[in-house]
C-alpha cells in the first residue's frame, strides 16, 4: 500500500475521532464526519486534485473550528503545510457570526491556492446539503420566508458555478 494512502487513512481516522460525537444540522442528524470526507471527495473526484496536502486539509478543515483540536496538534501529526491550510480556512469563533462571514469574504482573495480549493468545495458541499434537506431550526413557519423550500437552488446552476470556479482556480 502506498504511503499516501496510509496517510489519507490516518488523516480521515483522526478527523473521525475528533468529530465522533457531532452531527450535521439536517433533520436526519447525519454524522458530522460525512461532511469533511465529502469535501475531500469532491476535490478528488470532481476537481481531480491529487495534492495530498490539500486532501488532508479538506479532511481536517473543521477540526480546529468545531472540536478541541489545536493547530499545533495538526502540525505535529501532519506537518506545517497541512496546518497552514487548516489555519487559513478556520474562522475566528470569538467573533460574531456576521463579522466572521465578512472576514471570510475579505480574506478569501489572499488565501493560498490549496485553501481556496478547500473553501470552494466546503461551500459547494453545504449548498448541495441545503438542497437535499432543510437544516433543523430552519423548517419552522417563520423561517419559511428565508428558505421557502429546501431545494431552492437549481442543481444545474450549482454544478455550472462549481465548474466555472474550479476552472478559474486551476
Ligand atoms: Mn466545513
From TrEMBL:
* Key words, A-Z: Hydrolase, Manganese, Metal-binding
What's its top-level EC category? Answer: hydrolase
Q: Which reaction does it catalyse?
A: guanosine 3',5'-bis(diphosphate) + H2O = GDP + diphosphate + H(+)
Q: Name one GO molecular function term.
A: metal ion binding
Purpose of the protein: ppGpp hydrolyzing enzyme involved in starvation response.
Q: Which family does it belong to?
A: Belongs to the MESH1 family.
Q: What is its EC number?
A: 3.1.7.2
Q: Tell me the PROSITE patterns matching this sequence.
A: HD
- Would you indicate the residue range of the signal peptide? none
Q: What is the lineage of its organism?
A: Eukaryota, Metazoa, Chordata, Craniata, Vertebrata
Which chain regions cross the lipid bilayer?
none
Q: Please give the Pfam families that the UniProt record associates with this protein.
A: HD_4 (PF13328)
Record's protein name: Guanosine-3',5'-bis(diphosphate) 3'-pyrophosphohydrolase MESH1
Residues in HD domain copies: 32-127
From the UniProt record, list the coiled-coil ranges. Answer: none
Q: Tell me which cofactor or cofactors this protein depends on.
A: Mn(2+)
Q: Which Gene3D superfamilies match?
A: Hypothetical protein af1432
Amino acid at each position: 500500500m502506498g504511503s499516501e494512502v496510509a496517510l489519507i487513512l490516518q488523516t480521515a481516522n483522526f478527523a473521525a475521532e475528533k468529530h465522533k460525537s457531532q452531527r450535521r444540522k439536517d433533520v436526519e442528524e447525519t454524522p458530522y464526519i460525512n461532511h469533511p470526507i465529502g469535501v475531500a471527495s469532491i476535490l478528488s473526484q470532481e476537481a481531480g486534485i491529487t495534492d495530498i496536502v490539500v486532501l488532508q486539509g479538506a479532511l481536517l478543515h473543521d477540526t480546529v473550528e468545531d472540536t478541541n483540536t489545536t493547530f499545533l496538534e495538526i502540525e505535529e501529526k501532519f506537518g506545517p503545510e497541512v496546518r497552514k491550510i487548516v489555519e487559513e480556512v478556520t474562522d475566528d469563533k470569538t467573533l460574531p457570526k456576521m463579522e466572521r462571514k465578512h472576514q471570510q469574504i475579505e480574506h478569501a482573495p489572499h488565501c493560498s491556492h490549496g485553501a481556496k480549493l478547500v473553501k470552494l468545495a466546503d461551500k459547494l458541499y453545504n449548498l448541495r446539503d441545503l438542497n437535499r434537506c432543510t437544516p433543523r431550526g430552519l423548517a419552522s413557519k417563520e423561517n419559511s420566508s428565508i428558505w421557502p423550500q429546501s431545494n431552492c437552488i437549481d442543481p444545474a446552476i450549482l454544478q455550472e458555478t462549481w465548474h466555472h470556479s474550479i476552472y478559474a482556480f486551476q
